[in-house]
Amino acid sequence: MLRRLLLALALFPLVLAGVPATAADHVESPGTDVDQAADIADVFFFVSPENAQRLIGVITFGGRPAPRSRIDGTFPCDTRVLYTFNIARANAAGAFTHNPDIRVFARFGNSSVTGRCSGLQLENVPGAGGTFAGPLETVFTSSTGLKAFAGIRNEPFFFDAEGFNNMVDAFASPPPAGGYLVNSFGLGQRARRDSFAGRNINAIVFEMDINAVAPAVNGVRPKVEVWATTARRVQ
């Protein structure tokens, strides 16, 4: 099982510029969709609103595409799945080789007391000072004070499914005079119509030291690209 999502960014001192989310991955084939623990939904990467010297990495997974039922209390924790958050820096010419310079590994573990999935371990987080771990649904910290979390949170992905479906249906008929317009599909006619509003997602969230991720050279930080993968241990 391998799901991948790519996000290209440009890093500059204290700000993150050029943040195009190039893809989202909420609707899958039946085989992939049923494996919630290994099915990546989105990847996010941004400067912390609390501390400009820290970056936030997020992997969401196991989400349900609208109009399916929301997630409320079931977290698909699977100790056989390895989550990898890949970060690649551009070279001096600004080009990418698409080979990761940094790979952050996340995996879930079982409690020695209950035998059930109870915590998250993070390895190779830039600036964390080593591998660290903590319980699910709790913000925990590394030895250097970087925060991390794994659990259920509000779905941040925005999508107007009604407008999209209207658009698809419209293509079955001849185009209207003047061609297709945004309001032909109902898009934009209702402010902030979000089909994922009020829904939940499973998330792994962690802070990183911006200087460890993209050290500045002559006051300029390199561009970076970010993607995530999952891999499953078969036995």
In short:
With 235 residues, the chain is mostly beta strands. The chain contains three helices and twelve strands; from the N terminus they run ββαββββββββαβαβ.
Polypeptide structure, described:
The chain is mainly beta and 235 residues long. It folds into two domains: 5-158 and 200-232, no CATH class; 160-193, no CATH class. Helices cover 8% and strands 37% of the residues. The chain contains three helices and twelve strands; from the N terminus they run ββαββββββββαβαβ. The protein has helices spanning 30-33, 161-170, 210-213, and strands spanning 5-12, 15-17, 40-47, 54-61, 81-89, 102-110, 117-123, 132-135, 140-141, 147-154, 200-209, 223-232. The strands form two sheets. A seven-stranded antiparallel sheet has the order 2-1-12-5-6-7-8, with no helix packed on it. Strands 3-4-11-10-9 form a five-stranded antiparallel sheet. A hairpin with a 6-residue loop joins strand 3 and strand 4 (54-61). The chain is globular and about 65 Å long. 29% of the residues are buried. Mean pLDDT is 79; it is low at 1-23.
